Amino acid sequence: MTNREIDICVCTFRRPHIVQTLNSLAAMNTNADWSLRAIVADNDEIPSTKETIEAVAKNFPFPLIYIHAPARNISIARNACLDNAKAPLVAFIDDDEIVDESWLIEIVKRLDETKADAVIGPVKAIYEDNCPDWVRKGDYLSREAVYVNGEICTGYTANVLFDQTSMPFKGQRFLIELGQTGGEDSAFLKSAYQKGAKIEYAPNALITEVIPDERTKFMWLARRRFREGQTHGMMMNESSANGFFSLFKNIVKAAGKSLVCFAIAPFFIFKRHKFNFWIFRGCMHAGAVSYLFGRPTLILYGQQNNSTAKG
After folding, report:
1. How many domains does the chain have?
2. What is the distance, to the nearest Å, from the Cα of residue 6 to the centroid of all Cα atoms in its chain?
3. Among 170, 21, 149, 13, which residue's Cα sits nearest to residue 90?
4. What residues have CB less than 8 Å from 258, skipping those under 6 apart?
5. For residues 130 and 263, what is the distance between their CA atoms, to the nearest angstrom?
6. How far is residue 230's CA from residue 250's CA, in Å, rounded to a whole number?
7. Banded pLDDT at 1 (limits 50, 70, 90)
8. Mean pLDDT value across residues 48-55
9. 103 sits in which H/E element
10. Banded model confidence at residue 235, pLDDT cuts 50, 70, 90
11. CA–CA distance from 190 to each of 113, 132, 146, 148, 226 (Å)?
12. How many other β-carbons are positioned within 10 Å of the β-carbon of residue 32?
């Protein structure tokens, strides 16, 4: 691999786990010729994580930068990271994750092999002891690449590396209006894809994420999928021609998919993880219909009772 300059960005909001996340970055394998920096953007109204990050930075193996990016809008924090990122290559991970020792080597290797503009890697959900069995079996919160006609059209920032000097990413920023609803990362990568970005997948660039019990509840998962559908509806609308006919066609398409999913679900009434899979999928398409009808997008993040403002 050639010499690399890489900035690794982490956005945080009142989450103590950020220390474990940073410790995993400190312990990962890297190339001795690489120049690395870590950037932590604190999305709280007050710089609540500043002292913690500065304490970790004293013994960190490469520069660790703290920036204060208020308040409770993850897009503000992500854009602050981009504004402070000087390296050509920029990575994003979340503050509740642990990177595998070979994560950075594997994701950079895949970028070089494929000549891609961006690479996403898998995020493996680790469920706590009280997690319902149907959630474990369904594994609804792990993430991996989704291919459409053989291409990756969007993705997530829970495990991503991209070249911000490539034309599709130059000047690219996260949408502020999606900073509390979520979906800002999907829209960011979708926009780059529409500008010609090649997005690839690095299956060996593993990151794990411990899922708190409150995110394994049926209603939380259903609301999340509905909100994901609203983001999908937004992207459908943007990629379609203007006019009533195009809007009507998208509504009919999404509504039809939603009804099909809900109709399939009862066939799995005795296999709850499969039953809920189809219910959640129906909720996603219903969310798309909701957006296309102009309904407000659900706000899932940045609220007082949430531990992070995460997309």
Report:
1. 2
2. 19
3. 170
4. 282, 283, 284, 285, 286, 288, 289
5. 30
6. 13
7. low
8. 97
9. helix 103-114
10. confident
11. 22, 33, 12, 12, 19
12. 5
**Which residues constitute the domain of residue 105?**
5-212
Q: How far apart are CA 174 and CA 180, in angstroms?
A: 12
Neighbours of 241 (CB within 10 A): 8
**Same domain flag for 192 and 243:** no
Predicted pLDDT at 304: 44
Give the containing element (helix H, strand E) for 19. Answer: helix 18-27
Residue 301 lies in a domain: no
- Residue 251: C-alpha distances to residues 201, 240, 242, 285, 288 (Å): 31, 12, 14, 10, 8
C-alpha R_g of the chain: 19
Other C-beta atoms within 10 Å of 147: how many? 9
CA atoms of 93 and 97, how far apart (whole Å): 7
Q: Give the residue among 274, 157, 278, 140 at the shortest CA–CA distance from 211.
A: 140
Judge contact between 163 and 281, C-beta under 8 A. no
The reply to whether 93 and 50 lie within a common domain is yes
Do 195 and 159 belong together in one domain?
A: yes
- Amino acid of residue 60: F
Mean pLDDT for the stretch of residues 292-303:
75
Q: Give the mean model confidence (pLDDT) for residues 81-110.
A: 98
Q: 147-201: per-residue pLDDT in tens?
A: 999 999 999 999 999 999 999 999 999 999 888 888 899 999 999 999 999 999 9
Element (H, E) at 286: helix 272-292
Q: What is the rounded distance in angstroms from the CA atom of residue 174 to the CA atom of residue 165?
A: 16
95, 230: one domain: no
